[in-house]
Amino acid sequence: KLFFTDYGNAAKVERCDMDGMNRTWIVDSKIEQPTALALDLVNKYVYWVDIYLDSVEVADYQGRKRHTIIKGRQIRHLCGLAVFENYLYTVNSDNLSILQINRYNGTDVQSLARLDNAKEIRVYQKRTQTAVRSHACEVDPYGMLGGCSHICLLSSNYKARTCRCRTGFILGSDGRSCK
């Protein structure tokens, strides 16, 4: 799945398949400007920062179990969001500090470091990476991803895929080759 935020006409947190199909709203009420987004892949939770409401919230992948982790002045101007173990990590763009927030109680907020210029944060650690099983976009015997001549996108599950073409090309009737 692909998770993303939108705060155009109606602010929301959404998800869709990697090929853009099955677009689903996760959260669409009591939300103003969701920006940063982070996933708890193990427990299937999505966290987001709302810069207008000065809040960090969480919900499960279906939009249930929603609650506010932390809200208020101490978390103004946040950009970027990452989750690892018991904490959320974010960047305060006002004073360029990295914040660590306890994701279970929201009361344990610590400034870890200051950076010259940061707008995003990521955690790279083996335990944050899920094991990959074989999938529909694996390289075929001819060296093409999923049998697609240009782009292979996973669809509704890891066994299904959709082929797409680069700009200036159209997908052939076989659903795989680009012309």
TrEMBL record:
UniProt KW keywords: Lipoprotein, Receptor
Keyword Cytoplasm: no
GO annotation terms (biological process): canonical Wnt signaling pathway
Keyword Kinase among UniProt keywords: no
Coiled coil regions in record: none
The LDL-receptor class B repeat ranges on this chain: 1-43, 44-87
GO cellular component labels: plasma membrane
Signal peptide start and end residues: none
InterPro entries per UniProt: 6-blade_b-propeller_TolB-like, Cueball_EGF_LRP_Nidogen, LDLR_classB_rpt
GO molecular function, one term: Wnt receptor activity
UniProt-recorded name of the protein: LRP1B protein
Organism of derivation: Haliaeetus albicilla (White-tailed sea-eagle)
